[in-house]
Structures are given as C-alpha cells and as structure tokens.
Amino acid sequence: METKIIRVAQGKQSTLSQLYINGVFQCYLLEDKIRTEKIKEQTAIPTGTYSLQLNTWGAKNVNYKKAFGKVHEGMIEITGLPNFSYVYIHTGNTIEDTAGCPLCGFGFQLIQGDYRVTQSVMAYQMIYPKLAALAKNKANKISIENNFQF
C-alpha cells in the first residue's frame, strides 16, 4: 500500500496536509510550521520517505488504550526521521496539540492566519485501523511531500 502525506497549505505557524492511502484521500493532517532549523516540538516533519510502526509503550499509548479500547493496538509512529523521535499520528485540533506530530481531522479552518483541523477523533477512528494494518507490515513506507496549493 502506498501512503502519502501531501502538504497543501501553510499558515503563520501551521502546515495543512492531506493523507492518502493507495491514492484515496483519507483526512487532513495538521503539523507545525516547516522550518529549516528544527525547534523541538514546533517543527514539521522533513519531507522524505519513512516507515510506520506500532509504539506500544509510553503514557500516550496508555491514554489512547483507555480512550479507544480494544481497537487501539499502539500509537501509529512515524520512524526513521532525522532528529525526531516519538512522532505519532494522533488526535488534536490546533498546533498547540501537535508537539511536532501530525494531527488528523475531517475538516479544517483558517483562523487568524493559522490552520486547525476539526472532527479529529472521528478522523482518527476511521484511519487508525488502516494505519495500524500498514504498520504491521515491516516493508511499509510513508512519504511526505510538499505540494502547496493555497
């Protein structure tokens, strides 16, 4: 399966992307601003090709297990990133919720120059089983590219 994050717009401190699996749009993603020099928990993931894995340890994993029950098998972690660690695709609405991770949502808004995603929990519940299945395949790849449209 081909998985892509395609960035389509930038706000003052935010980046809006679209998630595709096998060429089919799944949801929007929100990240921090793209920066040439990384600022911890305030920088979008660099473009490139990486892998997904299920991270089954840590506090976030425990919280998501409580929130999502048996469906949750581990956090969807993007691995192989240069100078980044513990980057999960998870729920949230604004860049204050990201800490350098992509947040999922079915819709988006532009408010005072920054993007936010909406209906995050619903989007997460829809994409989680698909991404978890991908993460179980050791040969999986996820590519991140810029294609700014607005």
TrEMBL record:
InterPro entries this protein is in? Answer: DUF5675
Question: Which residues are in the DUF5675 domain?
Answer: 4-131
* Pfam assignment, any one: DUF5675
What name does UniProt use for this protein?
DUF5675 domain-containing protein
